[in-house]
């Protein structure tokens, strides 16, 4: 359970950074931010694999770049389901999904599945 809460906090932080950086993406209030993080996790766990499977030919033809479109669509779906979150268009959704992915990856790099910081130290002998 702590790992889940840490991942949700990371996702909420990434969404907050994206809303601060990306013009056209706004999230109003902390409850909406937390709901968006939870809903984005659910959408990415349930709908994204199905969307990736259905768009596999486009993904192959574009050498994987169509995955960016799928990520933007998932972020746009979350914005459509929440009243306090708005995205002005596809460009804002695409840039927002890139920022969320980058920030989440950068922060999650040091967090293990248990929710604890895991940094590897290599000693030479």
Chain-wise SSE layout:
Layout: H1 2-21, E1 25-27, H2 30-54, H3 56-61, H4 66-81, E2 85-87, H5 90-108
Antiparallel strand pairs: 1-2
Helix pairs in contact: 1-2, 1-5, 2-4, 4-5
What would you say this structure looks like, in words?
The chain is 69% helix and 5% strand. The protein is mainly alpha-helical and 125 residues long. The protein has one domain. A two-stranded antiparallel ribbon has the order 1-2.
Low confidence ranges: none
Per DSSP, what share of the residues sits in E-state strands of 2 or more residues?
Answer: under 5%
Q: Could you spell the SSE succession in H and E letters?
A: HEHHHEH
Beta-strand segment tally: 2
Largest beta-sheet details? 2 strands, antiparallel
Distance from first to last alpha carbon: 38 Å
What is Rg? 16 Å
- SS element count, helices: 5
Overall structural class, as computed from helix and strand content, comes to mainly alpha
What is the overall shape? Answer: globular
**Overall tally of structural domains:** 1
Classify the helix fraction into a percent range: 55-70%
List the defining traits of the structure above:
125 residues, mainly alpha, two-stranded antiparallel ribbon, 5 helices, 2 strands, 5% strand
Outline:
The chain contains five helices and two strands, in the order H-E-H-H-H-E-H. With 125 residues, the chain is mainly alpha-helical. The protein has a two-stranded antiparallel sheet.
